[in-house]
Amino acid sequence: MQKPGIPKGTRDFTPLVTARRNYIFDTIRSVFRIYGFQPIETPAMENLSTLMGKYGEEGDKLLFKVLNSGDFLKEVERNTLGDIETNKLATKISEKGLRYDLTVPFARFVVMYRNEITFPFRRYQIQPVWRADKPQKGRYREFYQCDADMIGSDSLVNEAELLLMTQEVFNRLGLSITIKLNNRKILAGIAAHIGHPDKLTDITTAIDKLDKIGRENVEKELNGRGLDVAAIAALSPVFDLQGSNHEKISGLKQLLCESEIGLKGIEELENVLNLAEQAGLNCPVEFDLTLARGLNYYTGAIIEVKSNEAAIGSISGGGRYDNLTGIFGLDGVSGVGISFGADRIYDVLEQTERFPESLGSLTTVLLTNFGDKEQSFAFSLLQKLRNAGISAELYPDQSKLKKQMTYANANRIPFVVLIGEDELLSGMLTLKDMTAGTQEKVTSQGLVERLKHHS
Predict the structure, then answer these.
(1) pLDDT of amino acid 85
(2) Interatomic CA distance for residues 65 and 414, integer angstroms
(3) R_g of the chain, CA atoms, integer Å
(4) Is 70's pLDDT higher than 70?
(5) What is the helix, strand, coil percentage profile of the chain, to 5?
(6) Bridge-partner residues for 417, per DSSP?
(7) Which CATH code for domain 15-63+100-351?
(8) According to the model, what pLDDT value does residue 155 have?
């Protein structure tokens, strides 16, 4: 018999892992709420027409496509099936796809519900997304994103708020981070400076890979995308820019002194930093000119978050998109948002051992079961504990003490109540603290008070 399995890049989650993931979601959700974001949800599937062309050439290749219901080949002539190009065939047999991120579906949502929401609109969304990527450490085909977006406002206060909110999320999770910042207008200014304003997407797609493939390979890719040797050489100041944020900005002001859009991007970057720092942003922030994120819809600020303690990719990222809803028929609506990668955050918390130990069990106390009378008493006590808000369970079978204690240890249950003949006669229960290895005698009411205090 074939051993059961799951697709590569997907995972099952045990109770412990699920509790830890919920800790991450609950922490992020709590910060979203105090910043005034409202929850929405969108379907796992979107029309391919909604998704295609929104993520660039690389992103389109990573879309999971869903076959049409029924005879999905009915629109394809059988005798020409072998001659049809893969991409053309896909459009004939598939009209839907799994969502690649939460931002494009959100833009579609805004257009559809524009008469029911109030602008500026602040939304958060915590749902899974899918990408047909090559699975590797920290990269999955199915993973959760936790997004927050403000749409319907051009104010740079929004970008500053996202930086402060990001700091708050990672402070609550106990993780040390560096926020990396850039601005797409600066990149547009650089593209114009080297004489290729039409190659902005090619340039950003290539330099976004600098950390992964190195400068030499990035230059080769740029050459393959149509940039000549002189243009690539003119990018050297971009690759060589070093120093503090202030020094980098000063150098760029000189380089882009004749670029209106480039100087506009620098001005926006400075304003966002000043606003956030005045309001209490104190985590490391690095102006990174190679940060492009490779997504076509960013038009202003670009944000990325890196862990200072674990060698893993971006754990959060986002930016400003001025024209995304225009693709769906609603022009003039600007937005800015950020996405927290829950799966990568999980990996960092696990590597740094920052998960609270209390997440090990959802059950506070186990009641033992040694016989019919003991079971009857324990079952009544069980409901009293639950009515008092204490998570409790009764071992269902009348088994030996060792087996029941092994169960409690395996499930990290911190307390066990021993209920035997002596306890029934005396009315005094034996409460064992599994962490400290101590035990004490308590009444039924005393047990409730003792465990309520622990909780």
Answers:
(1) 61
(2) 47
(3) 28
(4) no
(5) 45, 20, 35
(6) 367, 431
(7) 3.30.930.10
(8) 96
Assign 154 to helix, strand or coil: coil
Percentage of the chain modeled with pLDDT above 70: 93
The residue assigned the tokens 């805004």 is 110
Phi-psi region of 243 (alpha: psi -120 to 50; beta: other; left: phi over 0): left
Cβ–Cβ under 8 Å, residues 46 and 112: no
Return the structure tokens found at 345: 């955050």
| Exposed e or buried b per residue across 418-447, where buried means at least 16 C-beta atoms within 10 angstroms of its C-beta | bbeeebbeeebbbbbebeeeeeeebeeeeb
Terminal Cα distance for the chain, rounded = 47
In the block, tokens 């971009």 appear at 238
* pLDDT at residue 81, as a whole number: 60
What are the DSSP calls for 66-91, one per residue? Answer: EEPSS-TTTTS-GGGGGGS-HHHHHH
Pick from 426, 370, 415, 409: nearest CA to 393: 415
Amino acid letter at 83? D
The Cα 390–Cα 395 span in angstroms is 16
Question: pLDDT per residue over 306-334, tens digit each?
Answer: 999 998 888 999 999 887 788 888 888 99
Which comes out higher in pLDDT, residue 207 or 110?
A: 110
- What is the residue extent of each domain of the chain? 15-63+100-351, 361-454
Please enumerate in sequence order all residues whose Cβ is within 8 A of that of 263, keeping only pairs 6 or more positions apart, or say none: 189, 253, 256, 257
Helix (H) or strand (E) holding 15: helix 15-34
Cα 104 off chain centre by: 15
CA distance 331 to 111: 10
CA distance 350 to 361: 17
DSSP state of 199: G
From 36, 316, 244, 271, select the one nearest 160 (Cα to Cα): 271
How does DSSP classify residue 371?
S
pLDDT tens digit string along 240-292? Answer: 778 899 888 988 888 888 889 999 999 999 999 999 999 999 999 999 887 87
Q: Give the residue, 397 or 207, on which the prediction is more confident.
A: 397
Ordered DSSP codes for 261-294: HHHHHHHHHHHHHHHHHHTT--S-EEE-TT--TT
The Cα–Cα gap between 251 and 207 comes to: 19
Q: What is the DSSP letter of 413?
A: -
Residue 194 corresponds to which tokens in the numbers above? 């080297």
C-alpha–C-alpha distance, residues 161 and 406, integer Å: 49
Q: Which CATH architecture has domain 361-454?
A: 3-Layer(aba) Sandwich (3.40)
- Examine the pLDDT at 95 and tell me if it is beyond 60: yes
